[in-house]
Task: inverse folding
């Protein structure tokens, strides 16, 4: 019974994720011990607690809401990564597609005064367009999507900086506040903010992201279209032989992945939670964190919902570490260690399968030996 349970893919993904999380926290604790052993235990506990460090329930709910606000874009980026991965592609360009979504979402909100749903669609279109470029290069020029994605990440970053300079504040490098320029561009709350102590940034972005996760799961696992995409990813030559349009499927996959990442950007910046800094010199980490969230979730859309929340939870929790005992960068270090370990989920699953196969092989050998002995006695 135990063997059958451990061979289940879902159980393996869950166990692998938990092992990686525990290892990440353990290594993070050891690092803290080397830096300053006096506060190591309290610091790692603070990372885990996050909003629970506050004593008042109202304050806890407020900061839980803030964590959820940043979980929505991370979830969308993880969906972008896993959608492409299921089709045999590695969409490392999700960071640039996210960046493109930021650019068009904010520019259309601040310069064109468009409503939030139009800004959201334009952000998705921007991400999709960038994904299409990688898809076309992959399909017709056999350019690896990782190479084109990395190059496009930086090109997009500086183009977005140039674009949003047109809608930034005069005395700072940050873009204008949407709430003061165009309130119709803010994603509506529909009462969700009241559940989190009137947190104005908690909007329908969170349920929208969860709905998209289930939509991706249905498309990939329950439709003919999803089957064709996965078949193309497994073997594009076989897919072509079966009459599938393998080039079209590659392009469509990266277009969808780009649209998901672009939507993630809009789900954050159209809440007014953050402003874009037009002097930004590095690609947003949200797209890269989406890789860890996708793998920690076992490359399953529903798993990505939980893993995205966990990664955002520890990332925000790291900011509460006592800065009098540790430097300001320690929170990023601990979060990075845990996120890095999350990438070993597939390795853990491989190790589990290898261990199960060895045990089954030994059990089969013993059974064969016993059968042979009984046959010899007869």
Result:
């Amino acid at each position: 019974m135990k063997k059958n349970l451990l061979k289940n893919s879902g159980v393996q993904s869950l166990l692998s994720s938990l092992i990686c999380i525990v290892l990440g926290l353990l290594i993070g604790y050891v690092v803290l011990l080397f830096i300053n052993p006096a506060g190591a235990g309290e610091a790692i506990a603070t990372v885990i607690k996050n909003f629970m460090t506050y004593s008042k329930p109202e304050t806890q709910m407020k900061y839980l809401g803030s964590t959820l606000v940043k979980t929505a874009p991370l979830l969308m980026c993880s969906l972008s990564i896993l959608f492409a991965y299921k089709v045999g592609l590695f969409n490392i360009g999700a960071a640039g597609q996210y960046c493109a979504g930021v650019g068009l979402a904010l520019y259309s909100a601040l310069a064109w005064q468009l409503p939030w749903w139009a800004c959201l669609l334009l952000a998705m279109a921007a991400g999709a367009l960038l994904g299409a470029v990688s898809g076309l290069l992959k399909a017709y020029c056999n350019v690896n999507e990782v190479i084109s994605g990395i190059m496009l990440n930086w090109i997009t970053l500086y183009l977005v900086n140039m674009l949003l300079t047109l809608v930034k504040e005069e005395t700072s490098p940050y873009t204008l506040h949407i709430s003061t320029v165009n309130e119709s561009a803010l994603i509506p709350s529909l009462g969700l903010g009241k559940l989190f102590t009137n947190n104005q940034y908690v909007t329908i972005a969170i349920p929208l992201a969860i709905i998209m996760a289930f939509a991706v799961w249905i498309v990939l696992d329950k439709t003919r279209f999803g089957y064709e995409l996965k078949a193309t990813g497994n073997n594009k030559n076989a897919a072509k032989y079966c009459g599938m349009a393998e080039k079209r499927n590659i392009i469509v996959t990266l277009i969808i992945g780009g649209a998901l990442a672009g939507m993630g950007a809009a789900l954050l910046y159209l809440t007014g939670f953050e402003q874009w800094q037009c002097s930004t010199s590095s690609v947003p980490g949200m797209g890269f964190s989406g890789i860890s969230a996708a793998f920690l979730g076992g490359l399953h859309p529903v798993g990505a919902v939980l893993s995205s929340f966990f990664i955002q939870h520890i990332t925000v929790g790291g900011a509460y570490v006592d800065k009098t005992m540790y430097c300001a960068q320690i929170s990023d270090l601990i979060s990075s260690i845990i996120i890095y370990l999350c990438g070993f989920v597939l390795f853990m699953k491989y190790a589990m399968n290898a261990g199960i196969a060895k045990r089954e092989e030994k059990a089969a050998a013993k059974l064969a030996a016993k059968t042979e002995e009984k046959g010899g006695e007869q």
Q: What stands out?
A: The chain has a mean pLDDT of 87.
